[in-house]
Amino acid sequence: MIERTVVLVVEDEPILRMAASDMVEDAGFVAIQAANATEAVRILESRPDIRIVFSDIDMPLGMDGVRLAALIRRRWPPIEIILVSGHVNPSSADLPARTLFFPKPYNEGRVLAAMTKFAA
Amino acid sequence: MSSVPDYVSDPARLAALASYSILDTVPEQGFDDVVQLAMLICDAPVALVSLVGKDKQWFKARSGFEPCETDLNSSVCAHALMAPDLLVIPDLTADRRTAANPLVTGAPHIRFYAGVPLRTQDDQVLGSLCVIDGRPRPQGLTASQAMAMRTLGRQVMTQLELRKALAQQSTFLAAQAEADARRTGLLELGDRLRDVSTTGEITRAAAEIVGRTLGVTRAGFGLLSEDGEFVDVQSDWAVAGIPSLAGRHHVADYGKLADDLRAGRTLVIEDVMTDSRTAANPARLLGIGARSLLNMVVLEHGRPVAIFFVHADQPTMWSPEVISFLRNVADRVEMGVARLRGEEQQRVLNHELSHRMKNTLAMVQAIAGQTLKGAASREALDAFVSRLHALSSANDVLLKRHWLAADLGEVIRNVTHTIQPAERFEISGPALTVGPRATLSLSLLVHELATNALKYGALSTPGGSIAVAWRVEPATRQVLLSWREQGGPPATTPTRRGFGSRLMNLGLIGTGGVELRYLESGFEGDFRAPLAEIGRA
Q1: Domain B196-331, what fold?
Q2: CA–CA separation, B328 vs B333, rounded Å?
Q3: ipTM at complex level
Q4: Which residues of B touch A86 (CB under 8 A)?
Q5: What pLDDT, in 10s, does the model give residues B325-334?
Q6: Alpha-carbon span B239 to B215, nearest angstrom
Q7: CATH of B6-166, one of 2.40.170.20, 3.30.230.80, 1.10.490.10, 3.30.450.40
Q8: In the structure, what pLDDT confidence band is assigned to residue A88 with cuts at 50, 70 and 90?
Q9: Do A104 and B367 touch (CB under 8 A)?
Q10: Cα separation of B308 and B296, whole Å?
Q11: Cα(B16)–Cα(B123) distance, integer angstroms
């Protein structure tokens, strides 16, 4: 059996987190949920099988998504990162290397296409 | 014994004399000529234009007499001030007013005096035109000599009046030029402030204009600390060779200035060497080239927040006009800063609102997805999400223009490009402003047209393309937007009137004006709406 790609979904808004997890699962990936960056880091430390992190940028408590992405790029360089936000597109200068950005509300088809490409 | 008449020190007479600004000036041809004529006509060795001051007599013109001034004890002219007309003293040794005069008792032993009072129109006597001889003249002057002296005396007065009028004229012209410069300065400031986008640029522009306009050494803007003890100067303007004051300054280092600043009083110091607030230790101010200074306090909600300072390296009389000019500049700077702050707050607020709205749209998308899962077809859910994204992209376009307006072309490109790559569209038309309302309805319309084209029309086959063009029809002032598909399958009139087709029939601004054609060559649509409606907020 082929091992399914594991995606960590980081989103502080429960409904959006639920929807994102469903989207990921429906596309045939394994979704793991984190409600903030601190939780995400704890999960990343215990789950070396995570291939992709799909995270919101604007999380009022603790680290925001951009800083989380920078930390992941430093500590877990192979992990692919996808960021989303309701704010206008951040300049690519703010984002770590190999980080994709989608504005909210995002187009699920495009996000999934990017994940599939990362998983291949 | 003093033989000087009291009238000599009369304040009104001295004020009149001062108004001519003549004492201690250089010789002038007009006065010298009169003196020469008086000598010739009276056949005298000495002639003088003598002006009698508070404690000396001073000669504007002199011939045959060495000193340019004498004290009043030596003055015979002082007595001429009292004379109703020409004063003639045939023998000075025989007259009680002059017998003890040092110039009579000693060298040069003068004996004869004839002087005509220099009388103003206000009947004040400034001095005299006189001739002097070393020998007594018992006969005095001849009648024609006396008449000539009176005439020449009036001539001297005419010269004095002319001189005064000229000086007043040039003072007036200089004041006029300064007023013009201040007016121009304010206009220039207004122009410059319209184009700047940071507080620093505003204060730099104001400092430079004030510095140049007033011809001072330095001008600048500094923020006052909460307690009024410190001034932070970000940037200032100074003439070449004068150092900038950028940095933090302790107000107390420069004198007793803090009380005035805290109270919001304009600080006017003509000379730091003599002003009671700074005279005790002016070294610090002199060290920065500030012999004279003017500090205008900028208040915000009644609290002093900043000062506008002007320094001059000479003692300077700051006129009320200059102070009010600076007040005007400070007011304009304040308004400029307030405008920038308002714009910045507006920008932050717009971004925050947009962020929240997009988060809400994301929530709506998630809730609809969860609610309708299994209940609705995948196709219906996709159509819903796609329309939601069209709304969201209209929101993006508006945010870029601070929610005031969008450009028609930008709205169309923004929607079509989320559906198909740009090369499938040929988009052309003049720049046209679309109000926030029309931006939303136009986005939904274009979205329906493009998704239809993708499903059934020109975008459903690889070779198809779409031309989108708009123009303003001059006769009707209507905007015509045309949508032409080509290279796709033949278009067929839809049999079902779904939400998509109803959205299309709402047109550009939701009120119709729609003409749809389903042709062999492909779908075509013409959409019309009044230009005024399109731009409405």
Answers
A1: Beta-Lactamase (3.30.450)
A2: 9
A3: 0.82
A4: 354-359, 362
A5: 999 998 888 8
A6: 9
A7: 3.30.450.40
A8: low
A9: no
A10: 5
A11: 10
